[in-house]
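Structure ticket #2291
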Amino acid sequence: MPSPHPLGFGLFFLVLLSCMGGPPSIPGKSSALDEGRTSFNLFLGRIAEGGTAVARFELRGPLQITRIEASCACERIEVQLPRRKPVLLPHHGEVSFLLGEGERCAFRIHVPVTQVGSRQESVRLWARGRDLPLVFRFVFEGVARYRLVPERVDLGKLRRGEGPKEFKVLIDRFDHRPFELRSIETVPPGFSLRALPKDPRQRLWTLKGRFDPRGFGTGPVGGILRLETKNGDRFSLLLEAFVEDPLRVTPPTPLVFGLIPRGRGGSRSCRLEPASWLRGWSFEGLEPKFFEVRTHREGGGLLLEVLLQKHATPGAFSGELVLEGPGGSQRRLRIVGKVLD
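Resolution: structure written out below.
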């Protein structure tokens, strides 16, 4: 005669543990479960990426298990039956083992932690004569094996031609074990780095680096820095910076003179920042004798005025004022207009 209770007379015990990544955070390490329950949930804790989460639970008879279904891509599912060696079970399919009165069996589900983030898996077991399965749900959080502070390096906006910008990154393991950085690979152009142990036991490392924006054009720079430890672990760090033109011109060029009556001349001006950038200038595509450049400081900038001389001959003109800055850098200002006859 079947038991009137949904799960028979078995009293179920559930214990879930993490085998890697430090002790799990489990409220109530084990719990004796009431006979009427069919669903069980526990948190395995935080486990380092590349490790293995191991869920363990026990069943006590009398009970006969006939089918198993696991949601996870498990490495293996094994059960320890009374007086027998551990048996590997399929992830899905029919099984058959019987627990007598008071007998216990222990399940172990091994799940590889392949990515960072929260993950929930479950195992369902069907017992003979029962419509509802036993559902064992376990949740764990995959975390990076190596912690980097900061997790990425963004040097922000740097002016082209200015000196190097320094930075540092602290690196340790999630489980605080010693490690040794063996190599630094694929260093993005313009960046230089060196790794130094911060404590004698090599549990914490400092990655010191700098970026030199000199010689770069404007725009985003950087890339992925690859690091490898002596035991073969690999991880990466994103390095970013934005190199901007050290000279700001307001308003932006071109300087448009428009239509100028003969003998009147004219002028157009713009503001350069910083004032210390300008070293000199020259004209290209324009007749220098028809143009003059004047400058004077205005606050932290430099007001640059281009004058068209009154004796300029009629006709259209188009060319560039080449501004010369530090280190051979240049900025070209377009100049266009027409002197009417």
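Closing remark: The two ends are 118 Å apart (CA to CA).
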